[in-house]
Amino acid sequence: MTRTQAVSFSRTGGPEVFEYGDVDLSEPLAGEVQIRHAAIGLNFIDVYFRNGSYKVPHLPFVTGKEGAGTVTAVGPGVEDFKVGDRVAYAGADGAYSSERNIETRHLVHVPDGIKLETAAAMMLKGMTAEYLLNRTFKVGPQTVLLFHAAAGGVGLIAGQWAKALGATVIGTAGSEDKVELALAHGYDHVINYKSEDFVSRVREISAGKGVDVVYDSIGRDTFPQSLDCLKPRGFFVSFGQSSGPIENFTLSALAQRGSLFATRPTLFTYVAARQELIDSANALFDVVQSNKVRINVNQTYPLREVGRAHADLEARKTTGTTLLIP
Questions:
Q1: How far is CA 14 from the centre of its chain?
Q2: Among the CATH numbers 3.40.50.720, 3.40.50.150, 3.90.930.12, 3.90.700.10, which is that of 141-264?
Q3: HEC sequence for 150-178
Q4: What string of pLDDT tens digits covers the 326 residues of the chain?
């Protein structure tokens, strides 16, 4: 048994519910390893668990689903990982900690050419971009797409990756600084939704045809306008709800707008199988090492200041990727 530091909450609510302190850490069990985090990724799903939008399995709860670090101990029966291995993961609760035990089924090896901080910054967001562009809707040279929150963590990765796939990439952002940031990361057109009607602009850019697919992590504030951007039989991909959940969604809305398709995917379904996780991570590592996608860490906060990080994320003061440093 050792002592480490972690951030937990005993009730749901605002950033003030977080508590930082020492916790006991046992030896890793069968099928687990112990890792020392180099960095922890901050994601909007962490907010959903903290504020009660998503139900936590128990209280108190250590949230956070993404991190990277070094293996410091190995539990019984573990063969694929050894002490000293550089590893990363996305999808295992409990990341907001200096050290932790984790089942090896969540882990992937980090290639030597990628820093641990970079790995922590890109696993959840990057594999999200991977499944959205390669598997939810297969993006290619003929694709015209709209990606909301283009200057966000997933958006900056997706813009570059979609451009590398040959697509015409349209994004939305909420300030001129964010518009410029997105334009520097693969987007052909970026619409400032604060000053422009994005539906009209999408129609103008697409010569009245609409786009093949809309990727929407905003939710309430962009619905049903996202549907109005699609061409007949287009795909509406709702993969988040940063502005709140979509309400009053009826299937007839899809029929009325041209036999549209709609899906609500999650990364954790797409990487539930071990081989799918490995394939998704390797596709991400490959596109980053090829320099087709750059991973920029735009904000870092000490782990003990996670409340401030959450407040800034919710206020949309952040861009791209944010890391928590133990």
A1: 21
A2: 3.40.50.720
A3: CCEHHHHHHHHHHHHCCCEEEEEECCHHH
A4: 889 999 999 999 999 999 999 999 999 999 999 999 999 999 989 999 999 999 999 999 999 999 999 999 999 999 999 999 999 999 899 999 999 999 999 999 999 999 999 999 999 999 999 999 999 999 999 999 999 999 999 999 999 999 999 999 999 999 999 999 999 999 999 999 999 999 999 999 999 999 999 999 999 999 999 999 999 999 999 999 888 889 989 999 999 999 999 999 999 999 999 999 999 999 999 999 999 999 989 999 999 999 999 999 999 898 888 999 99
Residue given tokens 């600084």 in the structure block: 177
192 CB burial (10 A radius; 0-12, 13-18, 19+): middle
Helix, coil or strand: residue 267: helix
